[in-house]
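Translate sequence into structure tokens.
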Amino acid sequence: MKKTSAFSLNRVSMAVAVVCAGISMPAFSQMNAKMTGRVHYDARAIDSGLDQINDRDTATAASNFEIRRARIGFSGDYNKQIQFEGVANAVGSTTNIIDTAFINYGYDSAANIRVGRFKQPFSLEENTSSNNIDFMERSYVNQIIPGKKLGAMLHGANNLGFTYAASIYQNNFNEVSNSDGASTMGALRLTTDLAKLAKMGEGKYVAHLGYGIDKGSYEVIPSTSGSTESAASVVTRATIISFRDENRGLSNVYRLQKAGVSNTTAAYGAVGNETIDVNRFTNGFEAALAYGPFKFQGEYADSKFAASSNGRASDVTLDANVKTSYVAFVYNITGEDFAKSYSKGAFGGIKPTSEFMKDYGGVVGNGTGAWQIGYRYSTYEVTHSEAVDARNSTTYSYTNDTNSRYQNSPKATTQTFALNWILNSNARVMFNYSTTSFGQSVEALDTGYNNSATTKEDIFSVRTQFNF
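Result follows.
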């Protein structure tokens, strides 16, 4: 048998490597990629007026530190026509460890196709990166819209200031049960910049108008809960609508739940064997005006829900209407121009005229950075049919749906005051103070301790963030 020397093998390996490199070099020469990441670290001092409760489920009522976001990923393009992105949540759970992951086929700016997990086309605020939003948290409008989902989207823009995007998507991170189609939800967003369209003050003014639709059906799984009851109920319920105080305060300041079937296992959190069908239809309107260092921005969303049980032939449908809105004013004290940060239907980051710390390791303290002040007024209001106030269980009266309920306040308003310091395009410090007034008193749910209630919550919060 002829032996092959190590030297011969090495020569063959080197030849193969050279050939592979020769083939792949042209491909890699057309590839551009970079690492991306962000860390948002928050501190909150919360004054809710609630009594101190030693219960793990009341953590959202307590002052706290939080790693709000810690993400790492990559983005880039191939031949400038195929874009890609993959971002992981370092503080995510098993259902959202993948923040975004998509491929965008951008051969024509007027007609791009995107597939994967990405922001659905709805809301100006949502389509502004968390690195660049004017306040630490987005408004109540953002709590009712689709956000980041798995799906496919056709989108584009033209040089007259128009943008469009239409998508189909799956509401849940993973499928809940077998359904009739791959996706039963859809979203549409249309925007225009009237200043660019009219070619008046282009580059100096922004006159943004937008309209969005979110429509379709999805399923949620009911489970048992100990909330407002002395012992865990055998009745399963599915949460159809819920709100959290806008500045990351108390959770479930409002919650609407549809009754499922009884579960013979009364343990807290035990799930039912049926799903609840939810039909949702949302209209959204958005507007923004910007000139120099001034910006006005507002949105309004009207959402209709219809929830019904798969497990009962004579079930009563739970109908609800949700109206959310906000108006916000922001002013750059140091004079930066908002119009320079606007592109394709969304605002980007403000680049300071005088950087406090120059990007990529410059001298510290050689500039002021950019300073902003802002004010936002935000609301939600819910009306519904077949559900009752959980605090008055004697009023249950709906046939076949005697256990659907709402908890806490069906409406609230939050005012937020902001002071932001943008050191450079990679670093920012934010100070927010918010005060929330509830339409009726709210309490900490899912505790078995409901003797304390409040109609107001005040929160002072600070964020330090770094992104690259």
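Note: The mean pLDDT is 84.
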